[in-house]
Amino acid sequence: MWFTAAELTEIRSAFRQQIAATRSRKPHARRIRKAKPRPVPPLDTDPAYSDADVLTTQGVADAFGVSTYTTRLWADVGTLPSFRTLGGHRRFRWGDVTDWLRRDADATR
Known about the structure:
Number of helices: 4
Strand order of the largest sheet: 1-3-2
Largest sheet: 3 strands, antiparallel
Order of helices and strands: HEHHEEH
Mean pLDDT: 78
CATH topology of the domain at 54-108: Multidrug-efflux Transporter Regulator, Chain: A, Domain 2
Strand content: 5-15%
Radius of gyration: 29 Å
C-alpha cells in the first residue's frame, strides 16, 4: 500500500495530535538530599566501657546514635575498625572505637 506525500503528511499530523492528547506530564524525580552529619557525643568519658569490651553493631549504633546500617557501612568501607567472628558477625573493640573517634575529631579541627 502506497501513500502520496499529502496523505503521509495528513497521517503524521493526526498521529502527532493523538500522541499530544494522550501524553501526560511526567512527575519530576525526587532529589535525594544528603543527610547532615550528626554531632557525635564524646564516648571516651563513659565509665561503663573499658578498652577490653567488645561491642556488637547494635551497640556501636546506639552509642553513636545512628542506624545499624550506617555502622555496617562504616565497617565495610574501613572507616570504623572492626573484626569478624567465626560466624561472620562484626565486632568492635571499645578502644578502637574511641581511638577512631579521637582521630576523626582531630582531623576535623
